Amino acid sequence: MKRTYLSHLLKAMMSSGILFTAPSLLQVQASDLQIYAGPGTAGQKTLIMMLDRSGSMGVIRDNAANHSIVADYPDLFTYQTCSSGLDENGNSVNRTKFSTETKTDLIFPDISYKRIYCKKNGNPKLYSDRMTRLKDGMFDLLNSTDPKLEKVYIGLGYYSAEDDVSGVIKVPAKELGAINSNHRKDLKKAIAALSAGSSTPTSHAYAEAAAYLLGTTTTNPVYNFVNKPLIEAWYSASNNSYTAYRLCDKAEGETCLSSWGAFVYQPVPAGYTYLKAYSEGGWNKRLYQKNQGTSDIISAATDSGFAKSISTSKNAGQTVYNSPLPTTAATCDGQGVYILSDGQPNNTNDARSNAIMAKALNQTSFSCDVSNGLTN
Q1: DSSP per residue, 205-248
Q2: Residues with Cβ < 8 Å from 178, sequence gap 6 or more?
Q3: Where does the secretion signal sit in this chain (predicted)?
């Protein structure tokens, strides 16, 4: 029940282009989460915060794509008065550089992060980059003493990873707990360690968060066969075009003795013997089998962040995410994905975005209505 509801929720989010972002502020307040914290205490509220760490969040180079202070305050600063120290090509320049200060957490003094800012002469105000404002907002949230937030389950991810194409689950969702809880400390450590400097594959981050909530995966499995696996290839009944295949890793003859795995959107691997063709459930299917004792490695999906996500977010076999949602759904349960971003998604396309979301939803395909101009 929870997975069916969440599948519809994620489809709605992708179609409507919901993006929890405020480019000029990029701050999260505890009050923003009250819709998940009440009324009452019934049901589990589970939130996944996906934080954008793209280059435009920081002050990396003196150009529009990588300098958020000049971009946000063009009437106050130029690259001459608030420089990153590097020109648009990455060469050192002799300009007035930004300033930094260390912010130490009030609750856990062993946690701190660097704040980046520029100042105007005669004005005491600090004009910070977006990554600093994001961290300030998240720390304000985690330092809230609002008792309603203590029962909220919060997990943390970021995008993109160092590969520039994937989202990552960094801290599994747990009950937030008291102001000095270990979970709040883990969240703060992960936030403090973030630095700007990557792309913005927002749709991939949505998919990774969805897969985590649903207890699925965004990658293709790796199999090491010791039995007689079967492959069932699916073809469209209308034009007989190939779509995907799924695998049973233990079979006897034409009978699957374990269970069919997730769909793999790749050609049927070489080395399988064709057994038969049949129609079922509106699909044309073909069955293949491999000889005993052979191995077959199916590579991970390029845009997936599953392999890079923390191991404690996955099941014991590290094959799918371990969903943080309650096993028994309640009418007051609530789930949400907060995408905290500053700008337009990039470094992907509609086909790749649809493929990774289909994988997260454990479906054969996925599509979005882009008639309103929305893209990946």
Answers
A1: HHHHHHHHHHT--SS---B--SS--EEEEEEETTT--EEEEEEE
A2: 150, 184
A3: 1-21
Spatial separation of the C-alpha atoms in residues 319 and 216, rounded to whole Å: 8
Query: Which amino acid, residue 288?
Result: Y
Per-residue b or e along 112-131, where b marks 16 or more CB atoms closer than 10 Å to that residue's CB: ebebbbbbeeeeeeebbbbb
Query: Could you give the CA distance from residue 109 to residue 215 in angstroms, rounded to a whole number?
Result: 35
d(CA 108, CA 185): 7
Q: Tokens 């130490």 belong to which residue? A: 104
Report how far apart, in Å, the C-alpha atoms of 70 and of each of 109, 196, 322 are: 32, 16, 42
Say if CB 218 and CB 354 are below 8 A apart.
Answer: no
- How many residues are there in the chain? 376
The residue extents of the domains of the chain are: 2-59+98-218+302-360, 230-289
Look up residue 166 and give its amino acid: S
**pLDDT tens, residue order, the chain (376 aa):** 344 434 433 333 333 333 343 333 344 555 555 544 544 456 899 999 999 999 999 999 999 999 999 999 999 999 999 999 999 999 999 999 999 999 999 999 999 999 999 999 989 999 999 999 999 999 999 999 999 999 999 999 999 998 999 999 999 999 999 999 999 999 999 999 999 998 999 999 999 999 999 999 998 754 444 456 889 999 888 888 888 899 987 777 788 878 898 888 888 888 788 888 989 888 999 999 876 544 444 445 679 999 999 999 999 888 899 999 998 877 677 888 999 998 778 888 888 888 899 889 988 777 776 666 655 5
pTM of the model: 0.72
